Amino acid sequence: MKVVVIGGGIAGLTLGVFLQKKGIDVVVNERTVGMPIKGHAFLMHTDGLTILNELSADRSVVLPGKRLHTYSLRRPNGKEIKHLQLNSWQCIKRGELIRFLHSLLRAENFKEGRKFSHFLYEGSKVIAAVFTNGEVEYGDVFAGADGGNSKVRGLILGPVEFTPIQVKEVVGIATSEKLSKTHESIFTKFQNGDTGLAFGLIPTANDEFVWFLQYDPSISDIEEPTPEGLGKFCRKLLKKFPEEVQEILSSNDFSTSYVWDTRDFDLLPSFHHENVVLIGDAAHLALPFTSAGTTNAIVDAQTLATSLSESKSYTDAFSRYYNMRAQEVHKHTALGRELKRVFLDPLGQNDDDIPVPLIPQRSGVSEEGKLINVLYFTDPICSTCWIIQPLLRKLKLEYGNYLNIEYRMGGLLPSWDEYTKGKIQKPSDAAKHWEEVCACHEIPLDGDIWLEDPLTSSYPPSIAFKAAQMQDTDLAILFLRRIKEMVFLEKKNIIQWRFLERAAFHVGLDSARLLRDFEGPAQELFREDLKLAQDLNVTSFPTLFFYDGDGQQVSIKGFQPYEKFEEIIHQLIPFAQKETIDTAPQSLFEQFPTMTNKEFAFLSNISLEEATETLLELHKNGLLDKYESKNGAIWIGKFSNSPQTVIRDSSSERC
After folding, report:
1. What domains are there in the chain, each with its CATH number?
2. By CB count within 10 A, which of 140, 245, 479, 490 is most buried?
3. Which residues have CB under 8 Å from 538's CB, separation 6+?
4. pLDDT digits (tens, 9 = 90+) for 17-68
5. Number of Cβ within a 10 Å radius of residue 78
6. Cβ atoms of residues 5 and 29 within 8 Å
7. pTM across the whole model
8. Peptide bond just before 542 cis, omega within 30 deg
């Protein structure tokens, strides 16, 4: 089989490299001569990055680009309304990616200076592609990778109906040594809350940035289509935007900038006709709001190449390719249109509801279909809640299919003046208690925080947790875990906002929104938790209430052995069967990115001595980082598939 690819951009080149890798005869045809320079840079998701790294795995070729770690959305007055961690995105200059792909494609498989003209047919089947220079390329399968205005698409499927151009985008490349020191690895976006007018700034390398201006042409549009006119237009629109924006505009060469008329079209009923197939923008054109276009093109190429190599016929391959890609690209089209709607109606959105297109949206809804609901009252500084972590983690692995755990804050320490529980009357008593708990349960706690920088209340971190729950219930649990690590091992006073903000950012929460919710509605949610705890007569922590579907209730208070939890589960669900835990270290650290020695031993069902020996060996081999506290270590997974929310510093200042 010979595949003729029409279009030597990113989609076509990636397809060519994949087909070459699979031993399929391929020729990629590009209309231009020399390396293309049109296009500046784009954002690529980890889906595309993984595929590109796979292509170069057996070659000493390094994938270009700049990894992004932070997304910051601000108003023109500088007010930050979103501050998020980015782990799945990389900014890559188009020219550099083209050169990267060229380096992987054999020279005989690439032909330049070939502008597509038409097909030659034998019956209804295409047998050759004809180019305007008179050259002809025969083949068995033809792939149109010729962009959003695809001529191939028009020939095989007819014209598409594009959506109207309601948003335009100016794109440019500029350098700034000053901004490179403050905006490295940060995707910064400024957006006007009244008009939607937006300016984005993304580092590409060293002191270079790609920038974009998104605007509504019905409000204002370019009058003079020259570099001078474009520069004048941008400076006029952005004159009230902050210093960073003016810095970029002043260093930009507008003769290299261009205006992008954004549009898309509905999902096609098929990506092929007979033996001609479409990939990338030719198959599905996306609006720029999702930053999914390049990634989708690369995933298309991999999927089509795999389908061709594994199917009995190209007809089967094309059907498989469409079935694997159509639903995903349809979602991206719908998301792009929704983001455009939001852009054009900025007054219809509050700050919290502004979507972040680069971050997959997660559901904060409790899981349905569980047979037991668990109401778990806890507190960020409760030492007993810390030492039951191994038990809760094992419950998740063995009985997670039956349990839906709802976290509630109990308010352990309103203030020292209001705390009158047992022997602990002052911070020094808490320090002694923590050391005793550590020695008894073999889980690290450092009581010195109560002597060096004692917390005056557990209410602030509890309210912060409620704010985290407002964003995402799963990430809120990671946030709670992180602030517990901070206080129990790292001696960080988690009343201080700087530690709460860093913990939120590290687990993937929007720390700017967290602050707004912390100061606003999370206060009331916390009061509701306290009221519920009072109504249920919760006086100690942890307290867990187990409810089945028939209203039967069983509770546990304080530290209990794991067998007690199992007993309750089987009391409420006699037929419950526990899952077998995959005790391979990589599997465990993919589930729980940080673990103490006791947690690893308990989940692995081995002795503490064996666990310590294994963890030390993994650390020696570079698969784990560790933070060493006075009374023990916590281990941080570095396996390739570990959750992306785990970005930490293994030094003494992990924040």
Report:
1. 2-63+92-162+265-353 (3.50.50.60), 168-261 (3.30.9.30), 372-572 (3.40.30.10), 580-655 (1.10.10.10)
2. 479
3. 377, 410
4. 999 999 999 999 999 998 765 568 888 877 788 888 878 766 667 788 888 8
5. 11
6. yes
7. 0.72
8. yes
